Amino acid sequence: MMLLFRNIKNLVRCPVKIFFKLIDKAAWQINVFYKTFAIMEFLKSINAFIEQRIHQYTAYIMTLYFFEILYLMIGLLFLYGKAASIITGLVLSLLLAYHIIQIFFKKDLHRKLQLYIIDMHAAYVMGYLFMSAATGIDAGIMTILVHIIRFITLILELPLIFFLTRNDIAEGFK
Fold first, then answer.
1. What's the pLDDT at 49?
2. What digits encode the pLDDT tens for the residues 92-133?
3. Distance of alpha carbon 174 from its chain centroid, rounded?
4. Alpha-carbon distance 124 to 143, whole Å?
């Protein structure tokens, strides 16, 4: 009789356990859905925040191009001497500073120019980083810093293509 009572007790307990497991799983799925919805709302708010200030972010990200000018100046110093290196660095720095100011003030010509610069620079940097990864990186600190700065610039400038080509943002530039 005791054995029969245990079996009946287990038969009743098993469906109850299964029922509570199903409720727990459903609650977990609802919780995941709610969290996913909350994350999507958070990402939408970040997107709206970025869209309002994309001209400022673009201007700040573009300051990383000054490192490219410095790297170019070092190469020109060895190839053509001090004068060519300094003049080229000065001219390119002034042009970049003017471009950054115009982007900050939402000039449409400079938005288009920035998209062209991103297109050329991203293609060059991706090829440069791939070639360096395939052949190996020198252990010099300058080479490692150039790779890190170029990678950071690439990661930051690729989303700008998405934002700067959107119709609603392009209409905000005059």
1. 78
2. 999 999 999 999 998 989 999 999 999 999 999 999 989 888
3. 26
4. 16
Q: Cα dist. 111→17, 30, 54, 115, 165 in Å? A: 62, 44, 11, 6, 9
Q: Assign 115 to helix, strand or coil.
A: helix
The CA distance from 57 to 61, in Å, is 6
Task: Extract the tokens encoding 8.
Answer: 């009946």
- pLDDT above 50 for 81: yes
Do the Cβ atoms of 63 and 100 come closer than 8 Å? yes
Q: Model-level pTM?
A: 0.71
| Cβ partners under 8 Å of residue 100, min gap 6 | 59, 62, 63
List all residues 6 or more positions away from 67 whose beta carbon is below 8 Å from its beta carbon. 146, 149, 153
